Each structure stands twice: as C-alpha cells, then as structure tokens.
Amino acid sequence: MQFMLLFSRQGKLRLQKWYVPLSDKEKKKITRELVQTVLARKPKMCSFLEWRDLKIVYKRYASLYFCCAIEDQDNELITLEIIHRYVELLDKYFGSVCELDIIFNFEKAYFILDEFLLGGEAQETSKKNVLKAIEQADLLQEVRALATA
Amino acid sequence: MRGLAVFISDIRNCKSKEAEIKRINKELANIRSKFKGDKALDGYSKKKYVCKLLFIFLLGHDIDFGHMEAVNLLSSNKYTEKQIGYLFISVLVNSNSELIRLINNAIKNDLSSRNPTFMCLALHCIANVGSREMAEAFAGEIPRILVAGDTMDSVKQSAALCLLRLYKTSPDLVLMGEWTSRVVHLLNDQHMGVVTAAISLITCLSQKNPDEFKTCVSLAVSRLSRIVSSASTDLQDYTYYFVPAPWLSCKLLRLLQCYPPPEDGAVKGRLVECLETILNKAQEPPKSKKVQHSNAKNAILFEAISLIIHYDSEPNLLVRACNQLGQFLQHRETNLRYLALESMCTLASSEFSHEAVKTHIETVINALKTERDVSVRQRAADLLYAMCDRSNAKQIVAEMLSYLETADYSIREEMVLKVAILAEKYAVDYSWYVDTILNLIRIAGDYVSEEVWYRVIQIVINRDDVQGYAAKTVFEALQAPACHENMVKVGGYILGEFGNLIAGDPRSSPLVQFNLLHSKFHLCSVPTRALLLSAYIKFINLFPETKSTIQEVLRSDSQIRNSDVELQQRAVEYLKLSSIASTDVLATVLEEMPPFPERESSILAKLKKKKGPGAVSVNELEEGKREGGELNGGGERGGDSSAIASTPSPSADLLGLRAGPPVTAAAPSAGSLLVDVFSEAGVNDDGFLRFVCKNNGVLFENQLLQIGIKSEYRQNLGRMYLFYGNKTSVQFVTFTTTVTCPGDTLVLEPLIEGGAQVQQVINIECLTDFSDAPLLNIKFRYGGALQNLTLKLPVTINKFFQPTEMASHDFFQRWKQLSLPQQEAQKIFKANHAMDTEVLKAKLLGLGMALLENVDPNPENFVCAGVIQTKAQQVGSLLRLEPNAQAQMYRLTVRSSKDTVSKRLCELLAEQF
Fold first, then answer.
1. How far apart are CA B71 and CA B66, in angstroms?
2. Residue B34 annotated as binding site
3. Half-sphere exposure of B731 (CA within 13 A, CB side)
4. Do B83 and A78 touch (CB under 8 A)?
5. ipTM of the complex
6. CB B335 within 8 A of CB A76
7. Which one, of B695, B717, B772, B704, lies nearest residue B740 by Cα?
C-alpha cells in the first residue's frame, strides 16, 4: 500500500498515512485530486478505480471515506477488508466510533493504525492482539500518571 | 490533554477559512513564545504543544519549528510523551542533520532498552520515516532483532516490516546474507502475526533475489495447505468472518507468484490441491451473509487465480478459473464484476483459456452496454480487446464502434486506438478495414489521432486491391454535409492518389470529385488546406480536364496571396509547376506514391505510449506488430524492397512543410510516425577513430541515447565498460545489445529507465591480430518505435601494445631486421591538426607504445617501440613519425614482424595527427 487517506463527505482530510516518500506539495496535490475523484462517485459504483499507475480502493463508512492506494499487483478485495478491519479496531477502541472521535483523538487513530499496518503492509491482523497492544500502552500511561500524581 | 481538545473545538467553530487561519496564527505565536520562554516547560506541556503543532500541520499548514521539542520528548521516560514525540517525528520528517543524530540516538536507546513497547515505538518510527540516514544507522541492527530467539513476537512483527521499508528505500544497505535462512524460516513461526508480517518482507526480498530465497516455496506451500484445510474456527482470532487467515493466505499466494511452479512433485501436488480446494470453496454456500465474508473469501480466490495464470501451465485449473470468473461476470456485486473482467483479461492471453474466455463474449458486450459505472465499462472494453481474434473480430469491432457513439469522453481516445488496432490486426478483407476506420472518423473524429489516419493511408497505398474501394467509400463519406476534418484529410489524400479509379462513373467524375473536396476547403484548418492543395496538383496530373479549373483556384487571391506562407508557397509553386512543366515531367513529379516501407504500426506505438504495458499484455502487442507488418504489404512487395528502403517515406511530402515538388522532398520518413531517430542508419563509426589513442570518452550521442566508454587493457586482455544513458524521460523497453565479431554475444538487462544509466561490461581477449573492429548492435523501443543502431566498438589492435624501452642502438638494429618489404607500411599525409610536439607525444603514448627519446638523430622525429600481445603470438612493432612543419605533412613508417599489423597500424594512425 502506498498511502491511506480518511476524509469526510465535505472533503476534509481527517487522517493521512504515507508509506512512500513524497514532498508535502505532492501529497497535497494527490489528496486534492483523490478527494475530488472519490466524492464525485455515486453510491452504487464499484469500490475500485485506476488512478495514475495505482489502484484506488475506497469505502464509505457513515460520513467518512477510507481510501487506499495500492500497487498493480496488490489485491483489491483484501484491501477493502483492511479498511474494514481498521474501522472495527477504531470502533472497538472508541466504542462505536464516529468522525468526532477521530478528530479529537487523532493521535490515537494514528497509533492504532501503526499497530495494524506498518510500512504499508498488514503487521497484525488479529483484532485482539492489536487492541491488546494499544491497551497495554494506555495502561502504561495510566500507571505513569498515577506514579507522578 | 484538555488544551488540545479546546483548541480543536475552537478550530471547528471557526466560521471561515480566515477565522481559522487567524486562530492558528494566534496559537502558533503562543506555542513559539512558550518554547522560547525562560521557564522550562514540563513534559506534559511540551507534549501538549507538540501535539497541537502536529494537529495544525495535519490541517495543511506549514510548521517550521517544534522539532527540537519533539526530539526532547523522545528521551522522556513517560510513555505518552515519548509516543507523541515519535508521532511528530514520523509525520514531520526533518532533514536537519543535527536533529537526525539526536533522533537516531533516542531510537538506539529505545531499541536496546529491552522494553518491547519502547522497541516497537522506535521500530514504528524507523518504518514510518524510512530515510536513508535511518537505514545507515539501523539496517545492520534490525535483522538481528528480527531473528533473535528472545525477541518478543510483537517486536519481531515490527522489525520485519521495518526492514521491508528500509529495503525499499535503500536496498544496498539492507544485507540479509547470513540471516537469509532464518528469515525464510519465520514462515514456520507459531505466531500467525509474525508470519503475516514476515511474509511481506520475504516476498519483497524474493522478488529481488529469487535464488537466495527459493527455499521459501515449499514452506509457503505447506503453510498455505494448513490454512486452506483448517476449519474456520481453528485459527481463532486470525479467522475473519469465517474465513481462516485471509490476509496471510493472500500473501502466501502472492509470494508463490515470485517463482515458477515448484519442481518437486510432492510440493506441486500439494499446491495444486490447495488451489483446487480454493476453487471448490467458491462453489460452497456462504457461511455468512456479510459482505466481509465473501470479500475475504474472494480475495483469496482472486489471488489463487492470479497464481494459476502466473503458472499458465495447468489447463484444467485455467479453465476452472475462467468458469468461476464467468459466474462473477453476472454477480450483483459491482466489485466482483469489475474484478472478474479485469482478471479475465489476463486469462484471455493464455492459450489454454483463450477459448474459454471467448465463450463469455455476449456477457461482456452486455456489460459494455449496460454497466452504470464507467470504470467497469472500461474493464469490459479492455476484455473485449483482449479476447479478440480472427473469429470474433468483426463482432467485437462492431460493438466497440457502436459503444463509441455514447462512450465517456475520458476513454474515447483509447477506444479509438483499440478499434483501429483490431481492425488492422484482424482485417481479412481490406474493404472492411477501410469501412471501419472511416466509421471511426465519422463517429469519433475528434479522438482520431494523426497516427490512426496516417495508418489507413499507408495501408491503402500499400494494398492495390483496396484502393478503388477506398476511393469510392471516401468519396461517399465526403457527401455528408458535415464531415469531420480528419475525413477531409483522408479523402484529399486518397482521391489525390486514386481518384482516377472511380472517375469512370459520371457520378464521381473528376470535376465532381474536385468540387466535392473544394466545397470543404474553406472550413478546414491550414494543414488540411495545404494537403488539399497538394491533392489538387495531383488532380491536374490525373485528370488534365480539371487543369484550368484548378489553376483558376490556385490563381485566386485567397490562395496565391494567402497570408499563410505555407499555403501561399504551395499555391505559387503548384500553379507554376502546372503551367510550365510538360505532361511527362508532371507525370513523373506527381507520380503515385511508392509503397511505405514496412514498419510497426504507429497506432500500436501510440497505445503503448499511452497505456504502458500494463493494461494490455506486451505479448499481445508484439503479436499485433507482426501481423500489422504483414498487413502493411511489406512481405508481398519484398521483391523491390531495396527500392523501398532508398525511397524517403512518402508520408512526408503531402503533409510536410516544404512540400514543393514532391520529387525533391527528401524529408526523413520520421515525419508521420513517432520518433524514429536512427531510421535506416548503417554502421555508425564517427566515434570510432577518436578512440585509437584514448580509452575513455563518449562514443555516441543523439537525442535519445548517450553511450560512454571506459576501457582498460593488459597484455592480450581488455575490459570495456559501456555506459548507456537514457536522455529521455521515458523508459526504453526491450533494450538489447549484441556484440559481434569477437564471437561472444551479450544480452543486457533489457530495460533502461528514463533518465537512467545502465552499465555493460565487455571482457575482451585478443586471440590474434585483426583489422575489423567488433560491432555493437543496439535495439530498443522508444515510445513504441523500434530503434536500431550499429556502432563500431573502438577495439583496435594497438590497444594490446606492451611498451618496450630500448636504446638507440637496439632500435636501429631491430629496424634493420624488419627489412622485408611487406613488413613495412608507410604513409605520407597532410596534418589534420596543429603540429604541436606535446600533443603528438601524448597521442603516441596513448597509442600504447614506448616513446623513445634520443634515438632518432633528428630531434623533430618521433620513434616508438612496442609488442602487441595476442594469444596466438607476439608481434613486435616499431614506428617512426617524421613531421614536416613547413609542408604541414607527416611521413609515418611502421615496421612489424607481421605484415597485416604494420598495415593496420598505419591506417589507424594516419587519421590521428
């Protein structure tokens, strides 16, 4: 996977994760272009499209679009399920996640993503294991917080 | 972090962009003052401000400070501060070297902390940044962490993917070496998460070094087999909506696609069994109605089909795959229809499944007509193109043509190219081909590129059996009140050449033809009008009865005084030509165009350029090329091929700028086609003689390619480095070089990236003395056009000289010994360059002989001695160069123990001074 973008129906970028080195300018250009392209598509259309020399896989969850760019040989359907698993992880962590959770706790959204995907590849696909790692980290925070209190 | 939440709310409450920017600037000023303030900030505040900066950056604003504070957080012993520090560093990578040093230090500390949570954070940061500096610092350490027995599973997972990222950015720094086998064995790890992460790394490494990693094949097959045969609950949390380990399965199947089918029968049998099981499962009723279940299941299925297609050796599996995809073609899920069309495209190119794919033609045509999503229709069009062959070409072309009338603008040009290619490739009768292309122009004239209509003209000119039909059809097409300008161009050209073939019919008499063309004239652009003027002068030759009418037109002010230079010049020249030239001269000058030399269809080149080899397989295109050539009539006209080769391609003259009288138009053939720089070039030896006295430099250069040379010689051996530089921004494909003469044929890695340089090494051994230089032939495709170039490699006999020092006495004694007339070669020649003593000395030294001082009684003269080393023998040679400054002449005398050597050295050197 080359990058993942989360944006709202209004086109506001909520999360961006780049697995290839690109300049900030290029990133902004890509984001603008893709947000426009994806938002223009109708609901029943297929979730895949060719874009430059990449394949775009996207899916909408409530007000949020999750959009991944994968390479020619990557598998579209499994990427769709990567998106879904990430949504499940967010959902489980925040308890029925909504866009606001991701806005206000954006750093958590990044941490969860890092536990699940690293370098653009699935690192750990077990929901339990990912959440365990995040919970452990949270626990670490609380312990420290108690210790310093 | 309450402050952060408040800030985010503030931003969200901003009513306008301006208000938002104002709020952000206020916050930035605040943070800056806190960071600069005298009071030391506590960790919590630092974390909060760094987090705010990050938020501002992610909103799309530039952040140019805070890096140092983030780096400070890295060494905090509070996990949450460290975590925010790492997140900031990962997102806002900074190339300041002092910072990088500090970051790397912090990472190093965390990696050696033995605290798995900290280690993972550090590894995540490396994987997210992936810079070369990080690779330099950690590429050696991470493999050790990855394979160490006491590393926690979660750390192993991060380490594997971290290494993958570093390998992608700096493959030269990540050396697996001794770790290879232990990394491969991670496929056997008990922890599914470790396998899932490690396999991505192994796949990437296998693609680059298949041999070193080939033991992974059998491990992957057994792992896959265990997963495929497991019950849906066996794998606990790695089962996803009743599908056991879908991600891992896909990755395993993907890894296997890096290799040919397993040679070991047992392994292969087991794999085939897996593939069959996967195909069988597709037929079973779903275990859940959830789309996640079917997606995960089908993801594996599609990956398995990709592997089956990759092997392309199991007819049974290929046909089963095709049937499965056939079912998906009518599935209610748009995604599945899309993927089935895409996947079938590759199946169509396999000989085993081509026929099976063809049976779905009706469904695919239906998809082209009824799919509501343009990206799906695009796939359908691609598949129709891929499944087309002689048996169904007429149907497919007709469907594509009718689809074109309503096709989306975004895909029209490509559709036009595809129709044009199919029509040409599978034309059995050429009237069908002509009809198709004219229809194409009628339906989608704006999208018909030059290549397409040039091509129809080339083909009509080369096939005399279709010329009459073409003239008639184009004449009819021009009757339409509004016809596309491209139609006028084709019409003008074809009637200008072959209008006589239909002139017998009073309905298309010469004057009718002329009036028809001329009725379009005023609506056309300048290039088309120029073409029409040329058609008119051809008319004067074909039909003398039209002469006065046409002269009248040419003479009118709107032509002869046209403000456009090109039109005016044509009008003046054609008018003059028609008035003064005799009928015979006119007939010669305006003779029918000679056939076009056989060459690759320029349309194909265009499609390749547009799409790259992605959408349509390269083989497919190559096949097209061959058939295209045959259609071009080159084969049948083989008898006068020499005439063809020496005739400048006539496409230039009607279209080219300096048309004038066609006979003098010696414009290169490249005019109408894509770049064809080397066209019919013979052996190019411009560079050759410059290398007699030197070993390094640029051998050849044109707009596309630069070839540099470095060479070194010792005894009878040499080594030559050729550097091929691609000067364009486009890839050269199928780049091959062949060296002939020394006997060895070398094949270079067949790809030169745009802007890249590729090096080739040639080892040379001199067996015996020689005169003819080896030839280097280079072939490659640039934007689809085949480039062919032959160069003389500057390997000359003098390269194998071993200098020999000797005293004056010895020199003259040997000189006398070599006194047979054939042992001496002499040349007297004019100086080509200034007679500068130092330059001469440098050249003689470059020649490879020893330059002997104080030997010749005349200090102006130069004498040299050396022995040429060949495998067969040694040839001693002596040389004497006598400059005559007054006459600007040289006398060169070479004596060798072998006559051919003397002669050759003399020839080579005579050009050097």
1. 9
2. yes
3. 11
4. no
5. 0.95
6. yes
7. B772
A87 touches chain B (CB under 8 A): no
Q: What's the gap in Å between the CA of B718 and the closest CA on chain A?
A: 42
Give the span between the Cα atoms of B861 and B855, in whole angstroms: 9
pLDDT at B702: 80
Percent of chain B with pLDDT over 70: 88
Provide the token pair at A106.
């954006």
Chain centroid to CA B840: how far? 45
H-helix or E-strand spanning residue B875: strand B874-884
**d(C-alpha B118, C-alpha B154), whole Å:** 11
Distance CA B669, CA B652 (A): 6
Q: Strands B717-726, B757-765: parallel, antiparallel or unpaired by DSSP?
A: antiparallel
CA distances from B659 to B179, B580, B663, B679, B747 (A): 69, 18, 9, 21, 43
Which has more confidence, B605 or B405?
B405
Does the pLDDT of residue B776 top 90, yes or no? Answer: no
Contact B130 A44 (CB under 8 A): no
Instruction: Render pLDDT for A69-114 as a digit per residue (tens, 0 to 9).
Output: 999 999 999 999 999 999 999 999 999 889 999 999 999 999 999 9
Q: Going by C-beta distance under 8 Å and a sequence separation of 6 or more, which residues neighbour residue B18?
A: none
What are the DSSP E strand ranges found in B766-822?
775-782, 785-792, 801-803
In this prediction the pTM is: 0.68
How many angstroms separate the CA atoms of B470 and B766, rounded? 60
Average pLDDT, chain B: 83
**Nearest by CB: A107 against B51, B192, B238:** B51
What lies within 8 Å, CB to CB, of B762 at 6+ separation is: B719, B720, B721, B722, B739, B744, B746, B793
Residue of A nearest to B304 (CA): A75
- Examine the pLDDT at B227 and tell me if it is beyond 90: yes
Share of chain B above pLDDT 90, in %: 42
pLDDT-derived band of residue B515, with 50, 70 and 90 as boundaries? very high
- Residue B571, judged by CB atoms within 10 A of its CB (0-12, 13-18, 19+), counts as buried
Mapped onto helix, strand or coil, the DSSP state of residue B250 is helix
| DSSP letter (8 states) at residue B264 | S
Taking CA–CA distances from A122, the nearest residue in chain B reads: B197
| pLDDT confidence of residue B629 | 33
Chain A residues with CB under 8 Å of B255 CB are none
CA atoms within 13 A on the CB side of B887: 9
The SS3 assignment for A8 reads strand
**The tokens of B187 are what?**
């496929």
Asked if pLDDT for residue B300 goes beyond 50, the answer is: yes
**Contact criterion met (CB below 8 Å) for B163 and B174:** yes
H or E element that contains B239 = strand B239-240
Choose among B12, B13, B85, B19: nearest CA to B48.
B85
Tokens matching residue B874: 């040694």
pLDDT tens by residue, B407-444: 888 788 888 989 998 998 888 888 999 999 999 998 88
Distance CA A32, CA A54 (A): 16
Minimum distance, in Å, between the CA of residue A73 and any CA atom of chain B:
9
CB contact under 8 A, A118 and B158: yes
As a residue count, chain B comes to 913
